[in-house]
Write a structure and sequence with these properties.
The structure holds 2 protein chains of 2 kinds. Chain A is α/β, with parallel strands linked by helices. Helices cover 36% and strands 15% of the residues of chain A. Chain A starts with 13 loop residues before the first helix and ends in an 11-residue tail after the last helix. Chain B has 2 domains: 42 residues; 255 residues, 2-enoyl-CoA Hydratase, Chain A, domain 1 (Alpha-Beta Complex), CATH 3.90.226. Chain B is built from 14 helices and 8 strands. In chain B, α9 links the parallel β5 and β6. Chain B starts with 6 loop residues before the first helix and ends in a 5-residue tail after the last helix. In chain B, 48% of the residues are buried. The chains are: A alpha/beta, B alpha/beta.
């Protein structure tokens, strides 16, 4: 199953889209892109390979069309989950993505085993199922010709949970942004921390934030896009601290998931609570952007930020200098 | 609150009490008490991770206000986040420790129904973290070192907390603490539960009381995520490396602070004295450090956790 059908989305020819599979792409991007979409597979029972059932409105969707619609239900606009390589494909200009640290192997800091199964085995299984060695991939990319650093969490890899390597790669994405002075765009979708890595996983929140602070000091913009679902250690660290926070429509975003909240408070959540639109109205998100408009919105932000280096306003150093005169000495009680 | 595995000690307690009731000067009391001390020491020398969880959660364990009472000569609690309200699960204010002014901030749990409702079982809302942020800034402005005491099951999971940005508040608190221009010390005194604990725990020195725990999720939550069965919490506690000695070995925690024999819940004053000594020692280590060096070392320390 190819991805040529999306050429229109980039305003590019089929040839340009096909170039994705030839050059400028990381080794495993090519492999990964051959995979069929997993959520489709899960729902495929309804009508074989060609049909997908919307998990929300139960509409039967014709797969090639569904793909052209960027995995958004044509009837109820439900946004299906998107595999990380597909996300990169529908976000970056064709052929522009250069993956970094693609081969960074997973870590097992606690030598964790649960029952007879080791964490190593679980990692291997997840890698086989998703085609990614860990739950995050990033690299340099262009969006409508504006360069950036683009990273995506793979939700299907142990729930997109942040262990040492996800934390490491997010941190390296931030460091790449600092080193290249290119804006950072991260798509986050995660269940939270990686249980099998214990407190090492928890500390990834601090690790990513330590570098995010440096990104701020380097005056490099950070756009955080949260997609369904996004919880725990990811939202409570870098994902909520974007210069601009964006959510996809209907995405569940928060510190605790609805199930945890309902179990703790023993109350049913009202419809829509803890979803993107709810967060927007409570001031936690800047924008809710439908998937077909996401690329345009990111490109617009990148254009605005790219113009800043040529703008005439300085860092305010002169103002600070004028303020740094030594304090006047006064005699108290004289 | 009785710990099941302290049975032998309780039995001796009963015997001693009975003898004392008949004759307070009975000769047997002394040797029985020695026996009791020895048994307690033996029990606490080899606590399993799950037993440590139970001690860390003990209702009689000293909480923030107990330590404040025993450790500081002066303390003024300040209130509110200046935005929405005053959280009662995170308290703090300026204090004097042996003549050294510092900012103390920590979680507060309750011991009975009324105080637990007041302190929300030590589970802060966003206002708690925003109050902490305000106090970090306060300390930074005045050059006061910061001491945080961590003891929480986790941040409050509720819809109102989500409405007011629980995740954002925690993220910002971590970020502010990471770049604070004053020395910071964190001691986990009981339960260090997840992001709700980490929010005030990223410090130049991270220490744990001997029988405290630090977890990515409570053993119950971890067991239900890993095996869909919360009753396997003891197993989760055993494999997730949540005790002080294990976390020192992993290089995440800098030092352990001993507790009085049989745990801090048996002797608040003794626990506070040990904590005070160690905090003073850590403050001494950090004294005179250049602030830029301090921040760089702090950043590097966290940057290097789980680095391949």
């Amino acid at each position: 199953m190819g991805r040529k059908g999306l050429g229109w989305y980039h305003g590019e020819s089929r040839a340009a889209s096909a170039a994705l599979s030839q050059k400028g792409v990381g080794r495993n991007m090519r492999d990964i892109l051959r995979r069929s979409h997993r959520e489709d597979e899960r729902d495929a029972g309804a009508g074989g390979d060609l049909w997908v059932r919307c998990s929300k409105c139960k509409e039967l969707l014709y797969r090639p069309e569904h793909e052209q619609n960027l995995w958004v239900c044509s009837k109820c606009k439900h946004h299906f989950r998107v595999a990380a390589p597909d996300r990169i494909h529908i976000t970056a200009d064709p052929g522009s993505f250069e993956e970094r640290d693609a081969d960074l192997p997973p870590m097992d800091p606690l030598h964790f085993r649960s029952g007879v199964r080791t964490y190593r085995e679980k990692l291997e299984q997840s890698a086989a199922a998703t085609g990614s060695p860990e739950a995050f991939l990033y690299g340099l990319a262009r969006i409508d010709d504006s360069p950036c650093v683009l990273g995506v969490i793979e939700i299907e890899f142990i729930g997109g949970s942040m262990g040492a390597i996800v934390g490491e790669k997010v941190t390296r994405a931030i460091e790449t942004s600092i080193a290249t002075n290119l804006p950072l765009i991260l798509f986050s979708s995660s269940g939270g921390a990686r249980m099998q890595e214990g407190v090492v996983s928890l500390m990834q929140m601090a690790k990513t934030l330590a570098r995010l602070d440096d990104l701020g000091a380097a005056s490099v913009p950070f756009v955080s896009v949260m997609t369904d679902p996004c919880y725990g250690g990811v939202t409570a660290s870098f994902a909520m601290l974007g210069d601009v926070n964006i959510g996809e429509p209907g995405a569940f975003i928060g510190f605790a998931g609805p199930r945890v909240i309902e179990q703790t408070t023993r109350e049913r959540l009202p419809p829509g609570a803890a979803q993107s639109e709810f967060l927007l109205s409570h001031g936690m998100l800047d924008l809710v952007v439908p998937r077909p408009e996401m690329r345009t919105m990111l490109a617009r932000l990148l254009r605005i930020y790219a113009a800043r280096s040529t703008a005439a306003y300085g860092s305010g150093e002169a103002f600070l200098e004028s303020r740094s005169a030594p304090p006047e000495k006064v005699a108290v009680g004289a | 609150m009785e710990l099941e595995w302290e049975g032998p000690v309780r039995q001796l307690d009963g015997e001693i009490a009975n003898i004392r009731r008949v004759n307070p000067d009975d000769d047997r009391i002394k040797s029985l008490e020695e026996d009791r001390e020895a048994r307690l020491r033996d029990l606490y020398q080899e606590l399993s991770p799950w037993q440590t969880v139970q001690v860390a959660r003990h209702r009689d364990r000293p909480y923030l206000l107990d330590y404040i009472k025993w450790m500081f000569t002066d303390f003024v609690e300040v209130h509110g986040d200046r935005r929405f309200g005053d959280d009662r699960a995170i308290l703090g204010g300026p204090a004097l420790l042996d003549g050294t002014p510092l900012m103390v901030i920590g979680h507060q749990k309750g011991r009975d129904t009324a105080s637990n409702l007041m302190h929300n079982f030590g589970m802060p809302n966003p206002e708690g973290y925003r109050k902490a942020i305000r106090l970090f800034r306060h300390a930074e402005k005045l050059g006061l070192p910061v001491l945080t005491l961590v003891d929480t099951p986790g941040a409050n999971p509720s819809l109102p907390a989500e409405e007011r940005g629980q995740a954002q508040a925690i993220a910002e608190s971590i970020a502010v603490m990471l770049s604070l221009r004053v020395p910071t010390i964190c001691v986990v005194t009981g339960e260090g539960g997840s992001g709700g604990a980490l929010a005030i725990a990223v410090a130049d020195r991270l220490a744990m009381l001997q029988y405290s725990i630090l977890t990515v999720a409570s053993p119950e939550a971890a067991a239900s995520i890993l095996w869909r069965d919360a009753s396997q919490a003891p197993e989760a506690a055993a494999v997730m490396r949540i005790t002080g000695p294990e976390l020192v070995e992993l290089g995440i925690v800098d030092s352990l602070i001993p507790e009085p024999p049989g745990g801090a819940h048996r002797d608040h004053a003794g626990a506070a004295r040990l904590l005070r000594e160690h905090v003073l020692a850590m403050l001494e280590e950090l004294r005179g450090e250049d602030v830029e060096d301090l921040i760089r070392k702090r950043h590097d320390k966290y940057r290097n956790i789980g680095r391949p």
